[in-house]
Amino acid sequence: MQIRTILRILGILIALFSVTLLPPAILAYFYEDGGGWAFLVAFVLSLVIGTLIWYSNRDHRRELKTREGFVIVVMFWVVLGTVGAIPFWMPDEYTLSFTDAMFESFSALTTTGATILTGIDELPHAYRFYRQQLQWLGGMGIIVLAVAILPLLGIGGMQLYRAEIPGPVKDSKMTPRIADTAKQLWYIYLGLTIACALAYWAAGMTPFNAIGHAFSTIAIGGFSTHDASMGYYDSAVIHMICVLFLLIAAVNFALHFAAVPRLYSRRIEGQQHYELYRGSLKVYFNDPEFRALMAIQFTLMLLVVVVLVSQRWYGDWTDALFHGIFQAVSIGTTAGFTTQDYSTWPLFLPVLLIFASFIGGSAGSTGGGLKVIRVLLLYRQGMREINRLIHPRGVFTVKWGNRALPDRVVQAVWGFFAAYALVFVIIMLLFIATGLDDYSAFGATAATLNNLGPGLGEVASNFTTVSDSGKWIAILAMVFGRLEIFTLLVLFTPAFWKH
């Protein structure tokens, strides 16, 4: 294990991350409502720490292998989550305890969206912006930016890419070079964020709130600059803009990449040639996961709206329509924005929405959960086993599109599901051991492991009442969910550490 090489990389990452503490400090100066000192101190501390770690290991530039890649990715989230907590922990009138600061930072960076804060509307603009910015960086910006920049610093990026990109077919790349892939993903992510912010602004949000909510929408994070979340805005237009961009962000970004026109340049016989790739919207509809995602989301919307209308939960059916659609997409994609307290809705709706978050978004998206592709493959494998029982001598394959998948991929999906179920049960039991009732413990586990945010029972709106030990369990669950179980679980196996 190349420990000093890993430390050198972490030092660079911490130093780069320190730069993200400057925008909140600038906002504090602009709005003059406090918080600037905390972010300036946090910037200096993180920059010094990162520089010292890098400098003491600057001569260690050995090639990273797959094992080091896994360690880097896990340490990336753990270390940056810890550094991200520094501003919350600074001693001023808004200071949080160490546990609460860590919880808020990890919840933001993992795009979970669970919070221990109340009175968010009264917080300085610096803190409110910082929470949104952390979610945006955690959604995809940080890892994509890191994979694009690290090769320029002499650090290989392929190992990080394979360890971080979600989904069972993670070895495929969209462009021949990993740095190009990362940059293209970054451009798409940034472009969607700008488009979302402009749409919010045009719909009536202030520029500050439009940018902040665009950050958490494209990251499918769920943090808001208001206690009432999206319910603060009594605007169907704003709510539907949020729904649209949540659905876009829940799609595999590889499909966005394939659909966007772009100009390629390449050198042939010493001369630079340019080639236009036109892109095509057909790539969306030809993708089985995209079709399944849309079918799941629209079915969920229909179920929620029908139940709300039939139960006359709202006086006006249009309220049931808009609130039902919004909550179905927000919870189903694991964003966690709310316009109403969905945990009080009638019949099975609260539990239905929580179960929908288990599916989450597509692989390669910013959504959480098991991912649509895995659920779809689990279903097809289940149907194959049923067919085998009916026709013992038959030969059946699990297909993805027109291609039969190797059994190795199917086995990996089953393995992931088994590991997910085991971690879920253990986390839930640990929550119960801290004093949460069974219903709340189930909601807390689903909310953190699926990177959803709001849960059920005591944690339906926030985690303020959860004990400190429960918050540390929640942090562990958030990291497990963000790293999709195996990336973190592999570090606990003795075989991983053997030479």
UniProtKB/TrEMBL annotation:
The chain crosses the membrane at residues 7-31, 37-57, 69-90, 136-163, 184-203, 236-258, 292-314, 347-373, 412-433, 472-497. It holds the Pfam family TrkH. It is found in: Cell inner membrane. GO terms for cellular component: plasma membrane. The keyword Cell membrane applies. Keywords: Cell inner membrane, Cell membrane, Ion transport, Membrane, Metal-binding, Potassium, Potassium transport, Transmembrane, Transmembrane helix, Transport. It is a multi-pass membrane protein. K(+) binds at residues 111-112, 220-221, 334-335, 451-452. GO terms for molecular function: metal ion binding; potassium:chloride symporter activity. Its main location: membrane. The keyword Oxidoreductase does not apply. InterPro entries: Cat_transpt, TrkH. Low-affinity potassium transport system. Interacts with Trk system potassium uptake protein TrkA. PANTHER family: TRK SYSTEM POTASSIUM UPTAKE PROTEIN TRKG-RELATED. Belongs to the TrkH potassium transport family. This is Trk system potassium uptake protein. The lineage of its organism: Bacteria, Pseudomonadati, Pseudomonadota, Gammaproteobacteria, Alteromonadales.
